[in-house]
Specification:
The structure is a single chain. The protein is mostly helical. The chain has a single domain, classed as Helix Hairpins (Orthogonal Bundle). The chain contains four helices and no strands. Helix 3 packs antiparallel against helix 4. The termini are far apart.
Length: 110
């Protein structure tokens, strides 16, 4: 099974992975910049992390080095911790404000 996956990565040129990863990352950046919903912002950050993970795996297979694939596991662990903490913060904000619009967070200053 692993050989089939590695063969798929070697058949497709590395430029295609770079283009797809750049497109995913740009979509994530646009989601962070232009959306006001905190959950969508977290999803956009996760999309950017997954774009980087895709590129790490592609370069790892391209160079026949497993270090990139190992680093992906660390990035996934950090992303899981970020989601857990972020959602806990969002639940607390929703209990206080009854909204998850980030424009209303300025009311929490004082």
């Amino acid at each position: 099974m692993l050989n089939v996956i590695l063969n798929i990565f070697t058949v497709v040129p590395i430029q295609y992975y770079i283009i797809v990863s750049a497109a995913l990352f740009c979509i994530g950046v646009l989601g962070v910049l232009f959306r006001r919903n905190a959950i969508i912002i977290f999803m956009s950050v996760e999309m950017m992390l997954n774009a980087v993970n895709l590129l790490l795996v592609a370069f790892s297979v391209y160079h026949n080095d497993a270090n990139g694939q190992v680093f992906v596991f660390f990035v996934m662990a950090v992303a899981a911790a970020e989601v857990a903490v972020g959602l806990a913060i969002l639940v607390t904000i929703f209990k206080n404000l009854h909204s998850i619009d980030i424009d209303e967070l300025k009311n929490l200053k004082w």
